[in-house]
């Protein structure tokens, strides 16, 4: 059983994030899904970026820190897209995290990685926000830093391919991704 904090995408705290948390809870994990915006989720990515601009990146990070305050140091930091970036940004402050679980976006600075840190990335291939060259460079840097990194790319999918409420949902890819996520969380470390 793991403690997991699962940060939402730029859309906000959507039903798909809650459903993902329920999936992880059903596997025995304790999952927290903080609302980093404090307002209802948006319907479009453009509205989401507008909301992020309005709320502000620092407020989002402060709300994420608040959500982590009472969680054990070995909590897995996880997130969807923007939330993966939030998880990665907070890793520098949570060096005892049991792992980084990155869905639909890279995160984490290689210079903050401790050797053996479990990191799992699930990404569309290609992804509109993380180019193949950027992902390859990030992957090399994380591996060189000593991360125990697994990268899974899902060809022909849309960015948030695990979100059943979006047009880019790819059920076949999601059906492959979720067992990988559960295996990552179940691994002994």
Briefly characterize the structure.
By secondary structure, the protein is of the alpha/beta class. It has helices at 15-26, 45-55, 57-68, 82-91, 132-144, 171-186, and strands spanning 3-7, 30-32, 76-80, 100-103, 118-125, 148-155.
Question: How would you characterize this protein structure?
Answer:
The protein has six helices and six strands; from the N terminus they run E-H-E-H-H-E-H-E-E-H-E-H. With 189 residues, the protein is of the alpha/beta class. The chain has a six-stranded parallel sheet with strand order 2-1-3-4-5-6, sandwiched between helices. Helix 3 crosses helix 4 (82-91).
Low-confidence parts lasting 5 or more residues at pLDDT below 50? none
Helix percentage: 25-40%
Q: Kindly name the structural category.
A: alpha/beta
User: Which descriptor suits the 3D outline?
Assistant: globular
Radius of gyration: 15 Å
Strand order of the largest sheet: 2-1-3-4-5-6
How confident overall, as mean pLDDT?
A: 96
For the largest beta-sheet, the strand count, sense and barrel status come to:
6 strands, parallel
SSE string, helix = H, strand = E?
A: EHEHHEHEEHEH
The total beta strand count reads: 6
Tell me what portion of residues adopts beta-strand conformation. Answer: 15-25%
C-alpha termini separation? 11 Å
Output the number of helix runs: 6
């Amino acid at each position: 059983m793991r403690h997991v904090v699962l940060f939402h995408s730029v859309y906000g705290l959507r039903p798909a994030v809650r459903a993902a948390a329920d999936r992880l809870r059903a596997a025995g994990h304790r999952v927290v899904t903080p609302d980093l915006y404090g307002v209802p989720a948006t319907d479009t990515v453009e509205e989401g970026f507008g909301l992020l601009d309005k709320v502000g990146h620092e407020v989002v990070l402060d709300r994420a820190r608040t959500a982590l305050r009472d969680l054990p140091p070995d909590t897995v930091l996880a997130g969807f897209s923007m939330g993966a970036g939030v998880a990665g940004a907070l890793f520098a402050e949570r060096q005892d995290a049991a792992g980084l679980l990155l869905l639909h976006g890279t995160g984490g600075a290689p210079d903050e990685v401790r050797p053996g840190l479990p990191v799992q990335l699930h990404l569309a291939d290609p992804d509109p926000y993380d180019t193949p060259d950027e992902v390859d460079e990030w992957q090399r840097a994380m591996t060189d830093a000593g991360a125990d990194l697994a990268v899974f790319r899902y060809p022909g999918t849309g960015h948030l391919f695990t979100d059943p409420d979006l047009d880019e949902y790819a059920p076949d890819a999601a059906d492959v991704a979720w067992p990988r996520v559960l295996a990552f969380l179940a691994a002994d470390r």
